Amino acid sequence: MTELTLTVNGESHTIDVDPSKPLVDVLRDDLGLTGTKKGCSTGVCGACTVRIDDEPRKACMHIAGMADGKSIQTVEDLADDGDLHPVQEAFLEEFSLQCGFCTPGFVMSTVALLEENSDPTDEEIETALHGNTCRCTGYDMIFEGVKRAAGEMSDDSRASPADD
């Protein structure tokens, strides 16, 4: 066991953990953040996607020791006082989910994409979501959710405080 300090969703956590334990297990089992899903455990499905230092990463492929001192954001951090993040809202509006298991990973990848590129092309969306797999819904509705979120987030950024 090793003492590690992780900043998860803006909150510092110092925990004693096996540094070789997968980050997805630390998030779920040690910190109780079950929004990050454990799917394939081999980096293929993307259900465990979180942001580590603002970059989308598969938490099953990162051992806890690699995350020491890093800033980690999970899907639980996106909603603001019960109001869904625009990406979460767009995914709901476009029916971009069916069983929902893969959704947190797609949402985290989409948030990372749209924070870097607010008006992505279809090819850029495909590239950003390449590491995420859905077995239920199909990708057309997911792409529509990303496009809707991009439009809504662009509209929000253009609104001035005087518009409120």
Automatic annotation (TrEMBL):
Gene3D superfamilies: 3.10.20.30, [2Fe-2S]-binding domain. Residues 2-78 form the 2Fe-2S ferredoxin-type domain. It holds the Pfam family Fer2. One of its GO terms (molecular function) is oxidoreductase activity. The keyword Metal-binding applies. Keywords: 2Fe-2S, Iron, Iron-sulfur, Metal-binding, Oxidoreductase. It comes from the Archaea. InterPro entries: 2Fe-2S-bd, 2Fe-2S-bd_dom_sf, 2Fe-2S_ferredoxin-like_sf, 2Fe-2S_ferredoxin-type, 2Fe2S_fd_BS, Beta-grasp_dom_sf, Diverse_Oxidoreductases. The keyword Mitochondrion does not apply. This is (2Fe-2S)-binding protein. It comes from Natrarchaeobius chitinivorans. The lineage of its organism: Archaea, Methanobacteriati, Methanobacteriota, Stenosarchaea group, Halobacteria.
